[in-house]
User: What shape does this take?
Amino acid sequence: MIVAVRHAQVQNVHGVVYARLAGFHLSETGRSDAKALADALASSPLGAVYASPLERATETAELLGAPHGLQVRPDERLLEWSFWVRWQGLPWNRIRERDPELLRAFAEDPAGASPDDTLEDAGKRVLAWAEDAERTNPDGLVVGVTHEAPLIAAMILGGGGAMSGYHSVSLAHLAAVRLLPGPPELVDLVQWARSC
Assistant: This one.
């Protein structure tokens, strides 16, 4: 089973857009929550752990892999969607004043808001990672730690849905989406681990 997980909670630095900035680490709550999930998965057949190269994802993956002695395999395809880079470092509440038209375009048509790197492109990268991870690790559970936007996009795309539904989906920190076998769906990894 190939599962992608949204990284754990990050230290709140004045509500800034993290995007692809380096240096944003898990909060104490995030570390505690990721450790609790790792403990729940400790007796499961976890075979590999991948992560976006950003610290918040890598730290989450390290905690998940630790009980199994697994090293994190960084994968650029799990990186945050590049759309957010234009605002990285800004407080979320300043986005509207800086780029009101782009923000409106994103609200109305998330799929078309970033022609250079579409939301669909972000989802396709995550799905391509999942297919490669399944070929490389045919047995057990494989976890990839990524970010909310690419994970939502992969879930919608893999389920044959339209990106227009993007804004109707919200994923909590450590939410898990089973990508393969498909169709993608939210899964409760703690419940899954109990059934192993």
User: Anything to note?
Assistant: The chain has a mean pLDDT of 93.
